[in-house]
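@channel anyone free to eyeball this complex?
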Amino acid sequence: METGVISSDELVGGFDLYLTLESGQSYLWTRNDGAMYTGERTPEAWYQTVVDGTPIQVRQPTGAADGNVEWRSSTDADPLVRRLLRLEDDLEAIATDAPDDPLIREAYTTHDGMRLVADPAFGTLISFICSAQMRVGRIHGMVSTLAREYGDAYALGGEPIHAFPTPEQLATASEADLRDLSLGYRAPYVERTAEMVATGEAHPAEARDLEYEAARDSLTQFVGVGDKVADCVLLFALGFDEAVPLDTWIKTAIAEYYPDCDRGNYGDTSRAIRERLGGRYAGYAQTYLFHHLRTGAVDA
DNA sequence: ATAAGGCCTAAGAG
DNA sequence: ACTCTTAGGCCTT
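replying in thread with the prediction:
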């Protein structure tokens, strides 16, 4: 096992591991104490995942945004950890350049150190298909179940860490199998999307090469993927920092704070709010706003 | 092109 | 203890 430390001195604008991984962006990490999305900060616990056959564990012993990041892996995972958690982002500049809007400012200062993630495309696609009308804790539960049932197990010291299944592995699941795992009406969506990717009919990563709106359209070819889920995949997996998923929280925020941005349909409203949230990094602002509203931290 | 209705399930609210 | 609503929507008509 290899280990390493990434010094907080390198993390421009700070980094908060807990906020980053438990803010509803990523469902592909678990915690070695089994507790996730319980609202509790546990600095000694390791967050763990498997990416392309490499198991990694990460933790931030101080539990604060100005603390070092420790990792453990089967190999030198320093570059991988930096990429997955976007540790090279200049968060200070991103926050400074955010629109001068009271609500956005409040969100950035309240959740200091939260970064976007850069998750693998397929796992993100399936995660957000599962997210429809679900609370974050249950989405994470569903994704963990899929990993446990269909993914490979890796070891890194103690308990096994399950990788999210490959498209081929997940495609072996029938709709009935997935319903048995409590996916409900999402079961046929996951089944068919996994099959599309496994057979090579399409792959979510192909959207990377397209212009933003074309990329969003492209992702909706997968079953169970509409504009909102497509935006989540673009933002959390494919590096489209301008993507602003219009979920129920953001729609509420638009109604309350930015009513002029409501254009009656997804595409036009998306453009308007994207502009209002600063364009290039609008998705960063969205993620702060989403978390701010969802945790009820907004100063009424 | 836009608008209803239906959909699985379980945690919270009343 | 029970019903009712809701939770980061999508598909079909």
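from a first look: The longest strand of chain A covers residues 54-59.
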